[in-house]
Design goal:
Four copies of one chain form a homotetramer. By secondary structure, chain A is mainly α. Chain A has ten helices and no strands. The first copy, chain A, has two domains: 78 residues, Orthogonal Bundle (Arc Repressor Mutant, subunit A); 138 residues, Tetracycline Repressor, domain 2 (Orthogonal Bundle). Chains in contact: A-B, A-D, B-C, C-D. Chain D binds a DNA duplex through helix 2 and helix 4.
DNA sequence: CATGAATGAGTGTTCATTCAT
DNA sequence: TATGAATGAACACTCATTCAT
């Protein structure tokens, strides 16, 4: 047991004890609380993600999430004010997770190669067995975003950010005369995002779908947008 | 059959006909089972589609569908045996609607042109104001298909059929030496389906997304797969 | 097809026709109606008995009874004004069925023999495969009679009549000095009715229960009430 | 365990104890799971028994049971998973209640006397005003057992146990040459059970039925099975 | 802060009954 | 009368949320 964890437990026991004896209105225990809160939130969100991706947003009950997180409803509701709030938080986390991916690649000199690498990296996820859950959750959130303003806002920003990042790469390539200047960078970005979304849904509907050749076609098509220098 | 019985039947048939023409206020359907059942099912499914695409599958209650269809729960349940049954029926209808679209285009001689036309036709739907509801419903059904076996089966078949139809076009083009034989026709088909799915989701999340340039990029990319006539 | 049945059909067709043409308020067709009504009631009650004894009074719906009787709800409700009314009617029929049984036996000279014969006759029913349904219905009605005044009244009268009939036999035996005058005839009757009710319930709960020896014990016990003349 | 933790636990336990003693108005049970659950189950079962015996199994709604027990549907369903589950639980309790009665009597030396005592004890229940509810419930359960497998199993076991207990008494008497060896002990037991069932139903149908004389006849008949000391 | 029993509005569904034809 | 589509109140049951401890 880590020293910190020990402190948490001590603190809890102690605090409780104090409350029983003196009934003080507000016992402040600020030091540990912060990490504690974060850890608890993690616990809840992980459980929620597991439930939601397995059974869907509406067939997962708070009770199930409680069981999955070994927490009581009361505890859950002291960290999130509603089920919707949990969903919103998950959407936000999902976003954070994806953002970094693109930026890393922007450094590579050869743009087409960079895009190819990104495609490889993106789509190899689909072979990761744990990824299936993520995909399912994504689809679930897309549906949710149609009528949940908060989720929609988060996903819209996420999408915009991706589009912007992609577009920037394309714009660079156009500047370097590597690419046809007739296409709108944002539109190319949109198409690439579609490639990802589309495969997510297709794989969700039929897990046996072929990805390898899908990537090949995708690369071939991207190449088509580039000014063939040394390429056929 | 006695003469009297004949008259009775005539009388009943006639009455039905008259009722169809007059369009009485509360659409009191006549006793003629077959058309009546179909009409009522329509009424229910239309109401359900409206509710589902507006509020989602799980935030729409049967009561709401009843209100939207001006029917009582009892009536609804005499046409569909459960809410799931309604959802399944909608999924099946959705499928039927899409199937024909591709086949029509297969006749066109110039494959690239045919694909361009299909792209135009597909994506112009997004400008149709009523289409928004369809898209939302589609996304809803994709999420539903992740855990509803019947819906999944329907969507999987639908997807497979689309992929096959697209692939056939590609295969023809390859035969005619118009297209690179290195790509798998089914994979190309998958990519095209992704273009549609991806735009549906992006448009769902942000209705202001730009489609025109999206189509242009798409066409450009498709062209990249073809053996360039006048292209480098 | 019998002549009567033919008439019924003609009459029905005709009546319907007349109604369509003239919209007369009350078309009287008294001759056939009577038998017709009786036959229809039979049809409904038979179906109801079948349903009730198989699935119980409250797990059988009117719709099921309709299906079982090949009649429409409307038809059923034109012969019985409610489900309760059907139950009441069945209870009354049940009563009529049982009443006669005892009276037939009263003629026999040797009272103990008469009682033995009655016991044999009563309990041999339990081996009749169709009887099981009757038993189940009886138990169902006993439960129903606890809170349905009409059914209760019917069953109470039925029971009283049985008790009276039995008691009379006993009283005769007492007069002939065959039997201990210390026992109340009505009480003996009650005991005998219990023998039947008790076996009905026991057989209902466990169909494998042994009847043969049950009858033997019963006979032995009855004999115990008699002044042993030539008996052990 | 830390000293603090110990104090906390003591504090909680103590609190519980205090609450048990004070009998607060709305019976707010303390957090002590075990006793609490038992008490609440009692509360629900008592309410259910009251409803069921008054209005029958199927005319009593869960809402009514809720009202009768001053509990919400949610609370009820956290103790029993379905209405059927409540019914099953009641059937099992009923069984437990009856089992002991016979065993107590087995000690008595004089078998006939023992049986007489049991009869007295059994049937004097009918004069207990609260017994009426129990009887009604019994009849209800007999009907239910015809199509509810779980209830049937419980009642069958209950009945078998009673039969076995009675039969053992009879068998002992036969061994001691007190009783005719020609009768099957189990059959005698069945007859005795019938006496009880039969009176329950007769009393249910007509509460004015005479019990005193019924018991006399019963005793007389039982005596008939015994090897007469002073009897012919 | 943590617990988990309790809440109660709301769900999907059934079914006795009605009534236009 | 006969039909059967329609009704709608009521049902068994669920679950997001609260709150005393």
């Amino acid at each position: 047991m880590t020293k910190e964890a020990e402190k948490v437990i001590f603190n809890k026991t102690n605090a409780r004890f104090v409350l029983f004896k003196k009934k003080i209105k507000k016992v402040k225990m600020p030091k540990v609380t912060k990490e504690h809160r974060t850890a608890r939130k993690r616990q809840i969100l992980d459980a929620a993600v597991a439930c939601f991706s397995r059974k869907g947003l509406y067939k997962s009950s708070i009770q199930e999430i409680c069981k999955a997180s070994s927490l009581s409803p009361g505890a859950v509701y002291s960290y999130f004010k509603s089920k919707e709030d949990i969903i919103t938080a998950i959407a936000k986390e999902n976003r954070q997770r994806n953002i970094t991916l693109i930026d890393e690649k922007k450094e590579t000199k050869d743009t087409l190669l960079a895009l190819h690498n990104m495609a490889d990296e993106f789509f190899c996820r689909f072979n990761n067995p744990g990824w299936s859950d993520c995909m399912r959750l994504d689809i679930e959130l897309w549906a949710e975003s149609l009528r949940n303003t908060k989720v929609n806002k988060t996903l819209r920003h996420d999408m915009a950010e991706h589009r912007r990042a992609f577009a920037e790469i394309i714009r660079e390539a156009q500047k370097k005369d590597e690419m046809d200047k007739g296409v709108t960078p944002e539109a190319v970005a949109s198409v690439m995002i579609s490639m990802f979304i589309g495969m997510t849904v297709q794989k969700g509907i039929d897990p046996k779908i072929d990805i390898e050749n899908y990537i090949n076609v995708l690369k071939e098509m991207m190449a088509g947008l580039f000014n063939s220098g040394d390429r056929g």
